[in-house]
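pipeline stage [seq->struct] | target=DUF177 domain-containing protein | organism=Lichenibacterium ramalinae | residues=188
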Amino acid sequence: MIRPQTLPPGPLSRRFDAASVRDGAVRVPVEATPAECSALAVQCGLPGIDALAADLRVARNGPDGLHVTGSVRARIRQVCVVSLDEFASDVDEAVDVRFAPEAEVDALEAERASRPPQDDEDLPDLPDPIVNGRIDLGSLVAEILVLGLDPYPRKPGVAFADPTPAEPEMPEASPFAVLRGLKPDDAG
C-alpha cells in the first residue's frame, strides 16, 4: 500500500479534519472546478471531464475511525476503442470507504503479512489511513472516479466488426475425388 503522505498532491484535494466528526454524521459535498476537472482528465488520459461532483457522508467508525459513504457522479468524454470517436458518458459510483489511524492500519498490515497468502482471500479490505488527523476527500473522489471508468469504452451503437473476410466454406472432398486427382490424365 502506498501511503498518502508519499504521493504528490493530486489535482483534486479536499482536506477534511477527522476531529470535526462527533456523534452524528457530517454531509460533505465535493464539486470539482473546471481547472481541477481539466487536470484530472489529463492525469486519467481522458479527452475531458465536463463535471465531477460527490455527495459524501462522513461518520464515526469506532472511537478513532471514520466511515465515508455516498456517491460520485461525473460527465466525462472518452475515446471509443472500436471507432476512435470521442463520446460523452456518465459515471455514477457508490462510495463506501473506512478510515483508521495510521498505527492501526500498520498493525492490520503486519497481522495480514504474517498469515499464509491463501488466507487473504476472505479478509475485508484494509481501511485507508488517517494521516495527521486528516483525510483527503478530493483524492477519494478522484480514486472512485478512476475505478468507475470503463477500461474499454465503446460509443453507444458501435460494434466491433472483424476486418478479415470470412473464408468461403469448401465442400469436403470425397475420397474418390482425391483418388481421381492422383490418376494420370489419359491424353492419348
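stage status: PASS
auto-comment: Residues 1-6 have pLDDT under 50 and may be disordered. The chain is about 25% helix and 30% strand.
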